[in-house]
Design brief:
The protein is an alpha+beta fold. The longest helix has 31 residues, at 341-371. The relative contact order is 0.08.
Amino acid sequence: MEQKKFYITTPIYYPSDKLHIGHTYCTVATDAMARYKRLHGYDVCFLTGTDEHGQKIETKAKEAGVTPKEFVDNIVEGPRGVKDLWKLMNISNDRFIRTTDDYHVASIQKIFKKMYENGDIYKGAYKGKYCTPCESFWTESQLKDGCCPDCGRPVVDAEEEAYFFRLSKYADKVRDLLENTDFLQPRSRVNEMVKNFIDPGLEDLCVSRTSFTWGVPVDFDPGHVVYVWVDALFNYTTALGFLNDKYDDYDHYWPADYHFVGKEIVRFHSIIWPAMLMSMEMPLPKHVFGHGWLLLDGGKMSKSKGNVVDPYILAEKFGVDALRFFLMRTFPFGSDGNFSNELLIQTINTDLANDLGNLLSRTTAMVGKYFGGQLPAGCKTWENPESFDTDLISMASALRGAYEAQMEACAPHNALAEVFKVIQRANKYIDETAPWALAKDMEANGARLAHVLYNLLEATRICGILLTPFMPESMDKLFVQIGASADIQTWDSAAVWGSLSETAAVTKGENLFPRIDMEKAIAELEEAAEAARKAALPAIEVEPQLEEKVDFDTFCKSDFRAVKVKACENVKKSEKLLKFTLDDGTGTDRQILSGIAKYYKPEELVGKTLVAIVNLPPRKMMGQESCGMLISAVHTEKGEEKLHLLMVDDAIPAGAKLC
Ligand code: MSP
């Protein structure tokens, strides 16, 4: 029988900033699905990558003083970049596309030309609104309160000669696809798309730009670059070798079974994408699934809002599998969910440490303690089973079916809920059978005890198989502990109760999911987040230079002098002020008060030669007179304000004029 194929993709990420937990969510979900399908015996192709063109990247690169390619290279390939993150998160993608890859660029040029030649792309003039951060064109009527309807940020006027794609021509076909098939999931997204975009009338889409250059050049019209979304969407096919020689499995894998995408880009995937594929006479993907967002304090995470959660910090602290599990277990895939560190730790403690961790460690410990790590032959069967024996066995035997139904419906959170029902049932079974009581009389109850423990190992094995797509590394360790060989870690064997050898070698290994001290962990996370925030600040920030000019005569009126500190002390009742007694060369002591007590101890300054402006009118501060001002340099370093008094060479005599 021919192996069934499954092609699944994540969106390709904008490498304009480092990725956060929201991006990780989507990739982990796709990975879990891909692993599930592989476990199920499918021939899987899982694609992810980066979407590297567009004005946003060009602008960011300019700000950073590097070329756009250098800029994206650093975020994609550099330390703690996109590829590193997917490696850390144990993402099993079969392919990684970068839209700056030569083969992709060449294919996009051919695709664009083909749609131009078939008349679906034509030249016109673009007049409208553009959201630079989203790289999206909008018509006036689509704006929300005059701003981008996706991100709410201001849009700018845009007018330029441009190519257009005849999106309007495909409106009816796209409507039909959305309304009358299961192409777009979950179903609630269909209404959003039809009501917001199709009902008001689809307008042709501007698909080239001339106001910047960082994009795929339109080869037959220099000066135009292909609109970034056309470039990006076709990645799903160029990465299989469509119109290029780099790969040759387009015919094998296309059409995709699933595009997993976040809800804000459903519009591109469910309207523009099928319309362009129709124009190219290519088969349409079978499904687009629009998942929800991970929110922080009720709002979307975004770098510009400064409220992103760093997946590196979480994975390093709690473990990759615990983080993967949390993301999939907690949030219903089609809906938004509120992320919090408390919720993460609570999920780890409840599901992983308490339920799964305890089941595994208690079971393996008891097999070790009562049977030296190996149950006796014959323990699989028991003549007169109790109701709780049959209950556990029938639940575990039926688990694969319930789990499969949920995974096929793209509801990984429900699939995991099914697994945890069995884990909880097994823990209850330990209480019901009380193995420690049976062990008191091994002669009378040894066989019964062995059967109970076998049932527990077997339930653990089945759950372990079905948890593999979510926590691959930990489940490998679990299989070692319960003595399950590779041939009984399979999809088929998950439906066959009794597959585990009666005399499997069981070892109580390391605790897979240690309990986390919530208070301590939260404090540490806050510290790490603060350190990361500081590290992300520019190392040194200096005041911007003033534009306003001062005429030379005015400047010359300021009398700057070298002054020598004769005495210095804190001003009573003031936390800020230091009082200086200064030799200014006139023979009469000068008193200046300065608000720098935070930066200097008075005794450090005695004997130093400083710079002061001496012809300011005297001021009273805390009841004391201050005649002039000491000059200092101020800047911000890692978010902290720093101040340095200007000190000059001791050889400069007090009273010397600075000019
Ligand atoms: N480059 C486009 C995709 C092109 S696909 C042909 C893009 N990139 S992105 O980096 O901005 O976003 C990638 C994915 O991450 C999107 O599906 C987006 O919804 C998802 N997420 C970004 N923040 C998210 C959350 N806070 N929560 C969940 N997913 C989020 O869009």
